[in-house]
């Protein structure tokens, strides 16, 4: 899925909006006036040329050297480090060199590429035993081989050999990085290889911090490599590690001279966005507008002829700063050529940039929409630290923690079950070595918990959650036709274990929504929507009708890809809640609507998948939203939802704006689904409310 910012064709988007809110002649006049503010950008080229290598053709030269062998590799490595460390675009060349020679790909001279690379790199080390470049190249190759192993489906690797291979390759990379440590302060490619390795290892925070500080001290303009450090932090699974990334980066940047920090900030943002998409980047790194504008200005002054710098600015002006004038100037400066890598690897993004530059310049800030300040997470920031502490304390600490949650704070301020969140800790995906080790530790811990507390229902439920996760890791996330027999066996075996533990904890069904949360995940995997689903959801609606986690689990099974029928969930919810008190029924209906509405509204295809042409019962929805807001006054979930439904259904822009102002620029993706849909709604507000 392309994660760039989505710019729908202007005419189609606003026709949709006009159809949604018909009837006022004044609104046509508004649109006419806004069209008059569009940039006169007729001179923009419909097609451009593309740079697909660095200015010094490092990719091409590295490939030729790899084909030629050790002498050519050693010569080019030294040439780049000694004489061509930076190219005319300000890019450091050596990280691109090592990336290219260790990259995966097709055979080389009828020899499997990895076999060829291993052989040639060994010959390089043998012929030049003191070569730090050869050591670094082999370290990078080991890191790439670890990544190859990581991609092996877990279910085809019943003995866990892929993780043994990964560990071996990354340990070999670490040894070679140590041997080549003289390059730490001479070549940013050392840090690039280290970051690639530690990202898979998932550990060594002290080493990461040291490498970052060294890189900032010696190569403070190397945004490409420094972005790897930022990526590593945002790849961490625990919110308490991720949400500190912006403050962590700001602290490092503030230690640099202001101009240096501004340029580096723009370079890091461009490289990060290139990897993850700019919507994601803005979520992790809320925009420091003045610093970025200053950085882009300084880079343009320093590299006025650079296509690469101009391309980076086009991307940032379009998809971060949202400045059409700045984007137009940068695109003109590029002179009909763009760098493919910094247009996120897709030539289609030129058309997206041109479409943005030519689009109507809606400015939601003009009508009072707060500036975007980041994504909001409902997960408590200290949840990971709390769970790690309890796990370290062993079964007794886990028993105490779940008892404390149940008695003191079973629900959070948004209406989510804190007990379900507790048990979700044991849903560990094997994505890196530290996650594998966490899962292995969990298996041992859960076994101890069941032995030391044989009557503990919580130990059984945690074990059920654990085995469902194991089952899905065995199956993989690919389509069913591509799943191998050994993967299906691992999937079935994991689900069977999960069912055994779930049934042992069945007594919790009446008192804790966490049991239903786990049970619905199990049924989804088993794929048998029989009477059991009805029995489980009957209890759910009787005991915990408003819980978002259990409602979401039930509704997910209605999606067509799981054998459900589009839109069938809505009458099902109304029928199931008929016996509830009216206010509870309304809140439950509104919660059900919120769960998938943002996803549904983001495209016509999604809306058809979720609603199947049905429209909600509006009176019940509005009543439920009002009641949810009264019950959870400190939550931004419900103002977000009310704003979204006003934009979609009522057309009451003033009321939508009132709710959006309460969000203080935070976007709750559990409601909006994507920044792009939130932006479409705020642009609609700008159109509706402009004078």
How does this model look, in words?
With 691 residues, the protein is mainly α. Among the domains are: 163 residues, no CATH class; 144 residues, no CATH class. It is 66% helix and 1% strand. It has 36 helices and four strands. The strands form two sheets. Strands 1-2 form a two-stranded parallel ribbon. It has a two-stranded parallel ribbon with strand order 3-4. The longest helix is centred in the middle third of the chain and has 20 residues. The N terminus is likely disordered.
What is the assembly state of the chains in this entry?
single chain
Characterize the biggest β-sheet.
Answer: 2 strands, parallel
Shape: globular
Distance between the termini: 38 Å
What is the count of DSSP helices, taking H or I runs of 4+ residues? 36
Number of strands: 4
Helix content: 55-70%
Main β-sheet, spatial strand arrangement: 1-2
Summed over residues and divided by their number, the pLDDT gives a mean of: 90
- Note poorly predicted spans: 1-24
Beta-strand percentage range? under 5%
Radius of gyration: 27 Å
- Give me the secondary-structure category: mainly alpha
């Amino acid at each position: 899925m392309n994660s760039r910012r989505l710019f729908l064709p202007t005419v189609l988007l606003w026709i949709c909006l006009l159809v949604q809110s018909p009837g006022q002649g004044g609104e046509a006049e508004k649109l006419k006036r806004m069209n008059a503010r569009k940039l006169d950008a007729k001179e923009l080229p419909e097609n451009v040329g593309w740079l697909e290598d660095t200015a010094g053709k490092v990719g091409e030269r590295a490939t030729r050297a790899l084909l030629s062998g050790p002498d050519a590799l050693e010569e080019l490595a030294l040439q780049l480090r000694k004489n061509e460390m930076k190219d005319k675009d300000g890019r450091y060349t050596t990280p691109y060199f090592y990336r290219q020679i260790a990259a995966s790909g097709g055979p080389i001279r009828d020899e499997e590429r990895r076999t060829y690379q291993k052989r040639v790199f060994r010959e390089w080390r043998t012929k030049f035993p003191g070569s730090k470049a050869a050591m670094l190249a082999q370290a990078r190759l080991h890191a790439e081989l670890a990544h190859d192993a990581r991609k092996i489906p877990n279910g085809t690797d019943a003995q866990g050999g892929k993780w043994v291979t990964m560990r071996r390759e990354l340990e070999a990379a670490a040894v070679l990085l140590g041997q080549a440590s003289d390059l730490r302060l001479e070549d940013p490619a050392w840090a690039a290889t280290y970051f690639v390795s530690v990202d898979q290892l998932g550990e060594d925070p002290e080493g990461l911090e040291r490498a970052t500080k060294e890189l900032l001290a010696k190569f403070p303009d190397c945004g490409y490599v420094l972005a790897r450090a930022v990526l590593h932090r945002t790849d961490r699974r625990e919110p308490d590690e991720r949400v500190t990334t912006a403050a962590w980066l700001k602290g490092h940047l503030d230690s640099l001279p202001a101009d240096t920090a501004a340029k580096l900030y723009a370079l890091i943002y461009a490289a990060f966005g290139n990897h993850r998409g700019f919507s994601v980047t803005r979520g992790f790194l809320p925009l420091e507008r003045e610093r970025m504008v200053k950085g882009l200005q300084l880079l343009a002054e320093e590299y006025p002829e650079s296509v690469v710098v101009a391309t980076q600015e086009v991307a940032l002006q379009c998809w971060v700063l949202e400045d059409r004038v700045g984007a137009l100037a940068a695109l003109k400066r590029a002179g009909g050529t763009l760098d493919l890598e910094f247009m996120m690897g897709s030539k289609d993004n030129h058309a997206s940039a041109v479409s943005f530059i030519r689009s109507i310049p809606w400015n939601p800030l003009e009508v009072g929409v707060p500036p975007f300040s980041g994504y909001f997470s409902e997960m408590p920031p200290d949840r990971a630290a709390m769970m790690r502490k309890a796990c370290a304390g062993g079964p007794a600490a886990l028993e105490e923690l779940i008892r404390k949650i149940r008695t003191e704070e079973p629900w959070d301020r948004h209406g989510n079950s804190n007990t379900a969140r507790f048990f979700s800790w044991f849903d560990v995906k094997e994505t890196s070595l530290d996650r594998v080790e966490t899962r292995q530790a969990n298996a041992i811990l859960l076994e101890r918990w069941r032995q030391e507390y044989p009557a503990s229902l919580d130990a059984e439920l945690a074990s059920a959650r654990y085995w469902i996760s194991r089952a899905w890791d065995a199956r993989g996330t690919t389509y069913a036709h591509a799943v191998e027999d050994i993967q299906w066996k691992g999937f079935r075996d994991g689900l069977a274990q999960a069912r055994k533990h779930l049934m042992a904890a069945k007594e919790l069904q009446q008192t804790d929504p966490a049991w239903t949360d786990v049970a619905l995940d199990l049924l989804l995997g088993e794929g048998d929507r029989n009477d059991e689903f009805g029995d489980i959801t009957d209890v759910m609606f009787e005991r915990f009708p408003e819980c978002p986690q259990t409602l979401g689990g039930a509704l997910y099974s209605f999606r067509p890809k799981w054998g459900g029928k589009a839109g069938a969930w809505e009458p099902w919810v109304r029928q199931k809640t008929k016996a509830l008190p009216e206010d509870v029924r309304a809140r439950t209906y509104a919660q059900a609507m919120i769960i998938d509405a943002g996803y549904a509204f983001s495209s016509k295809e999604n809306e058809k998948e979720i609603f199947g042409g049905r429209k909600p019962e509006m009176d019940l929805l509005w009543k439920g939203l009002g009641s949810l807001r009264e019950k959870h006054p400190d939550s931004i979930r419900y103002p977000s939802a009310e704003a979204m439904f006003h934009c979609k259904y009522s057309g009451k822009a003033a009321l939508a704006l009132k709710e959006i102002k309460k969000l203080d620029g935070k976007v709750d993706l559990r409601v909006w689904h994507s920044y792009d849909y939130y932006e479409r709604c705020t642009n609609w507000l700008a159109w509706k409310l402009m004078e």
